[in-house]
User: Which sequence fits this backbone?
């Protein structure tokens, strides 16, 4: 019975150690339910396995998504109730077509957008050592500006664009744009931790009943080791205390 205190201490230390790591609950499986699933509150972070690249401009970022917004400075015509026409200039992400009846030599828009807007999404993202179904984060919409400097552009484009508050501008003066000038900006959907409950199905995380949300980084994320290692560590700790207790009891008998 002298081993009881040692056992209590060992199990307490094991419980404290296990509390630092994700607690995974295995769902019961049946023949009709298909493969067993695991439900877990993740402690790691969404991490794309490859960078997303806008090859036209050489812009690259490790993120869940990257998008390029292209706007062109153009004329827009508005017709009043009395038939009068007023003209305004504005930035637009689409080509503004002026009705044929209103066209004149002083108000001409370029025939096309030199560069289209575009978006890229990561196809392979990991969370806690497993791939993630992209539907798990498809609802995220917290885009952040991705500043681009002209020094990172290909030489032929760097000669045509100048920096403008994290974006690039094709005209001579960003403060006084001319018709046909372009302003191109990039945004990224950042990787990072999530909170909520996800399911592991066929070695891939999928969304649970409630969509996950953005989370905060846990301080123990650096201990990113497989779950089975946790049990090995706990078992080794328990075995060590048992051996210590046995040795102490043997010395008392001697």
Assistant:
């Amino acid at each position: 019975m002298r081993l009881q205190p040692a056992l209590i201490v060992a199990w307490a230390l094991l419980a404290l150690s296990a509390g630092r790591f994700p607690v995974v609950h295995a769902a019961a499986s049946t023949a009709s339910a298909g493969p067993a699933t695991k439900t877990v509150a993740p402690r790691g972070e969404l991490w794309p396995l490859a960078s997303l690249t806008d090859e036209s401009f050489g812009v690259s970022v490790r993120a869940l998504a990257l998008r390029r917004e292209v706007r062109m400075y153009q004329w827009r015509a508005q017709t009043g109730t009395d038939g009068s026409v007023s003209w305004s200039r504005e930035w637009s992400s689409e080509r503004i077509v002026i009705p044929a009846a209103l066209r004149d030599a002083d108000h001409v828009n370029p025939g096309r957008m030199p560069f289209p807007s575009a978006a890229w999404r990561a196809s392979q993202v990991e969370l806690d050592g497993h791939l993630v179904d992209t539907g798990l984060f498809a609802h995220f919409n917290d885009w952040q500006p991705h500043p681009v400097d002209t020094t990172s552009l290909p030489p032929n484009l760097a000669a045509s664009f100048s920096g403008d508050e994290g974006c690039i501008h094709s005209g001579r003066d960003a403060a006084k744009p001319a018709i046909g000038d372009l302003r191109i900006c990039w945004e990224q959907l950042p990787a990072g931790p999530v909170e909520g409950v996800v399911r592991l199905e066929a070695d891939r995380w999928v969304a649970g009943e409630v969509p996950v949300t953005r989370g905060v980084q846990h301080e123990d994320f650096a201990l990113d080791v497989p779950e089975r290692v946790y049990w090995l560590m706990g078992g080794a700790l328990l075995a060590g205390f048992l051996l210590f207790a046995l040795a102490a009891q043997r010395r008392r008998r001697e």
